[in-house]
Amino acid sequence: MTDFSTANRSMPPPPSRMRRTGGVKRALLRWLLFAGLGVFALFYLMPLFVMLTTSLKSLEEIRTGSLVALPRTVTFDAWHTAWSQACSGIKCEGLRPYFMNSVLIAVPAVAISTMIGALNGYVVAHWRFRGANIIFSLMLFGCFIPFQVVLLPMARMLGLMGLAGTIPGLIFVHVIYGIGFTTLFFRNYYVSVPGELVKAAKVDGAGFLRIFWSIFLPLSLPIFVVTIIWQFTQIWNDFLFGVSFSQAGTQPVTVALNNIVNSTTGVKEYNVDMAAAIIAALPTLLVYVVAGKYFIRGLTAGSVKG
Amino acid sequence: MTRWLEHHLPKAVLAPSFLAVLVFVYGFIGWTAWVSLTRSKLMPRYEIDGFGQFVRLFASPRWDTAFGNLFIFGLLFVVISLVLGLLLAILLDQRIRVEGVIRTIYLYPMALSLIVTGTAWKWVLNPGLGLEAVVRGWGFENFRFDWLVNSDMAIYTVVIAGVWQASGFVMALFLAGLRSVDQEIIRAAEVDGIPTYRIYSAIIIPSMAPIFMSAFIVLTHLAIKSFDLVIALTGGGPGYATDLPATYMYAMAFSRGDIGQAAASAMVMMAVVFAIVVPYLYSELRPRHD
Description:
- The structure holds two protein chains of two kinds.
- Chain A is mostly helical.
- Chain A has two domains: 14-75, no CATH class; 89-301, Orthogonal Bundle (MetI-like fold), CATH 1.10.3720.10.
- Helices cover 70% and strands 0% of the residues of chain A.
- The longest helix of chain A has 33 residues, at 23-55.
- The N and C termini of chain A lie close together (7 Å).
- By secondary structure, chain B is mainly alpha-helical.
- Chain B has helices spanning 2-36, 52-59, 61-92, 99-107, 114-124, 131-137, 154-179, 183-191, 196-204, 209-225, 228-233, 245-255, 259-285.
């Protein structure tokens, strides 16, 4: 479903009739096609280009020069400031501590929700018991709720648990609202493992955990990659939970970025804003560049079955 | 004993997640629903008072704007992303050698946080120094592109940034769909000399109805939840011009201290999502004959 393989499209050249009448027309269409593709590529690349060049300019050059011009003199001052000095709110420590917060939130939350999802998916796909289907449906629906509907009670609950404004609190929230998706991913993947395999293993005396460990886990590398990438992207890019359930020292990088950009004190430093935005985006961009195939598979797995 | 344990282990594995979902999804929805029917203000109160909060909500001009914006933004965002995504997928489907590179370029925004997207577009659309200044620099002195600070037009900047972020994703969905159409039929049509646009409009696109559906669901869902983008791009402004239900809810809950209004607006969001997602989930989960 999510394979873009063009193997089955290596067709013979189109029938000669078309070629004879339309040589020029075809060339023209081809040219138009590439022009169109190029224009759209520019549209998608432009903001990234502008961010990058702006982050490398001095404020002086930003004010006098053009948005789309390359920097006359390249300076990394803005990157320095964004990383370790930019002010968000009253503190001026740059993005660094918040970047670390995001790491501290994302790594455990991704690990825990993925492991839970693997086990859940295994149960839902191969150890059906009465009510399992309903449970799965209920969990699936949980993926689709607008989180605004749980913000208020969750804020109170975190308070009661003593986790309000803490990093463990944010990990907890991300795990809770992540398991719906991780379960779905693993369930859809494990469904394609033949039930006979499980039955045969049972006959041989293997139990629930043994079958998971020695049959399912060895098959699971691709779906682990897909799920980990999906969860990491979701959690790293999260803003709503981060802004609702954190406090001054525990904000994730997205919240700090927004605070830096919208901080009203002092001169507006656009180059610092852009450098900060790129820093906040780097981890997920890197994942996308390195493992784009799995990233796409996660995106589509959430929406298309099979 | 071990047999009994073995027999119940699958249930025991699923139980904590089930319990968590029951409490943190359904219990919490129940709590919010309950509070939306009370006179809660700064602190929740639990005496049911009827639909006063909803009456107040729909009488509020700010909510009026936010709810209206949801439909303007949602409709444009979904329709433009669908059309653009399909167009890009068809363009990319023409056996192009650099397809991989172009696909990567079209899709990368989806990996970004909406806060980053909002920050980037806020800068690009900055009237003083952004695109407006660029075009003026090219000699069009009277060019105006101040949507970001124009309360009638600001909501459309959210549409632009949203489409920029999500259309590549729609393209990926459609491209995968295009590739799964039976190639024999297409080849037969090509041999018969049927023009390419007819092949697309009569054969390929109709066969992708389920993908339209999925893309539509994902996009509407994104539109209803979109909160980050507005916060980063316009902050809901100028004034309340680009408020969405999500930002209204957040403002009531965390800065205005009006828990009753926050709960009521969250329930309306929930109802909208419900109306769209439930029929879809129902059709997805219906047992199939296979």
